[in-house]
Amino acid sequence: MRKIFLIFIIIVLLFSSCTNSNTKLDNAATEQITAEPTPVATPVPTDTPEPTPSPTAVPTVPKYIFIVIGDGFGRGAMMMGEIYARLKSEDMQVGAEWENFAQQSWVDGRGESASGGTAIATGYVSPASFISQTTEYQDLYTIMDRAKEAGMSTGVVSNAFLLDATPATFLTHDDWRLNFDDLAERMYTCNVDYIAGGGLMRLVPKSYYSSFNSTDCRKRLVRDTASVSNDSSFPIMVEELGYVPYLGLAGAQSFLEQIDAGTFSEEKAICVFSESTMAYETHKMDPKNIEECEFVPSLSEMTEGGIQMLSQNENGFIMMIEEASIDKRSHNGSQSGNIAQIRNLNDTLKTIMEFYNEHPYETLVILTADHETGEYRYDEEKFAEFKTWAPFTWTDNADEMIAFLDSVWGVEVYGSKITNYVNYAVDSLWGTVEEDRANLYNYITLQASLELGIKPTTEYHSWQLVPCYTTGVSSGEFAKTTGIQDIPIIICEILGWEALPEVIEN
Ligand SMILES: [Zn+2]
């Protein structure tokens, strides 16, 4: 018995000496270590302190890296996401996921998506329209190439069409972002294991249409288009490089089934669900489109697919996820559409943070943007005041809700809209509380934003600063970021990889 007790004391001493050496972890991770309870196998004598968990098992470099890009996501957009989150949580202290990130900086974007994506993918500062190429037309190594060299798995997810500028910078190379045939042709050399998004009409040749009955995930026939030649890279990727294709409606149904069961485990997969850009959130929120959008995978589900598939690799993964339509809705001049896409970004971050919470000592999450869109006007002081307002509480009584918004929040609304949106929720048209209430939250967020002076001033890109928000292992390293091109360079530094930017010699 005494021997067992002695061994136990030695174990306790070992544990506590390890704790002291644990200085490299950032604060967030350290907090979670001390907060996590430890199962103890040996009975503990009452006067002995409980051992803390062993930090020797804690890596100081990340194994799972998420690069999340909100296309066109600036401070005004962020504020709208923070309003929406507070409505939904009914707690003015509980906001958007990014508000809890350990490291929060504002940095220079690139003013346009090809150049912005190239900066984040390669560390190179290019003029507009270059897709991971130098001004001398040389291809650049991407962070995906570096990750592959290190034995990690890689993923690119976007709700745009996959040859759109931002995802393209992680997948292919060209000097002109609209050279879709060339972009498709050169994609077969990409070092990306999991590719998911839209763009059947630009990426998949007609010879493959029979495999998905020519129907996209919105149950519509894919238009016959000359923009993809039959000798595109797609057959090479599928037949020679071993990608399993998930295409159109049939692909989406099979994909969603596996995601729900937690069994999506392909080695390599290319998932192209919609004809072009995936359905906008406000389109899905329209009751007349419920049936049509039944099998449209969400950005969050496509991210979950990447997590299930890529986390099989014991060396970890790096995954880029783009919410592309924050930018696109700003170009449409739709502030309301913008809010819905920002909520979509936050939902996706929620999925990522669930994974993070299961692997807090191994995960790094980076949230940034290629540029801002809309040149939003906003007022930090008014916004700080908003956070002290009385919390919103859901009620099925539209009159009560209107009275609260008018007399407590001082936000103007059309009563008929509130009544209409409350009815959507009462009738449970979509079948989940979140979706059923989305129209109402979206509308109140819009009206509150206007009341707080949050409003776009153009329908174009701007040079406003963009977020570089990070959390998890090594997140503190990103405090030194001044522009988005620093992001892949810092990732290489953290992981001890060869520096970026670097040209690929042919
Ligand atoms: Zn744009």
From the N-terminal CA to the C-terminal CA, the straight-line distance is 69 Å
Question: What sequence of helices (H) and strands (E) makes up the elements?
Answer: HHEHEHHEHHEHHEHEHHEHHEEHHHHEEH
**So what's the CATH class of the largest domain?**
Alpha Beta
How many helices does DSSP assign? 19
Stretches where pLDDT is under 50 for at least 5 consecutive residues are: 1-51
Under CATH, the homologous superfamily of the largest domain reads Alkaline Phosphatase, subunit A
CATH architecture of the largest domain: 3-Layer(aba) Sandwich
Biggest sheet layout: 9 strands, mixed
How much is the radius of gyration in Å? 24 Å
State the strand order across the main sheet.
2-11-8-1-7-3-4-6-5
CATH topology of the largest domain: Alkaline Phosphatase, subunit A
Small-molecule binders: zinc ion
Describe this structure in words.
Helix content is 41%, strand content 11%. The chain is α/β, with parallel strands linked by helices and 506 residues long. Strands 2-11-8-1-7-3-4-6-5 form a nine-stranded mixed sheet, with helices on both faces. Helix 10 links the parallel strand 5 (244-247) and strand 6 (269-272). The longest helix has 24 residues, at 335-358. It is globular. 48% of the residues are buried. The model is unreliable at 1-51 (pLDDT under 50). The protein binds zinc ion. Residues 72, 113, 327, 331, 373, 461 line the site of zinc ion (ZN).
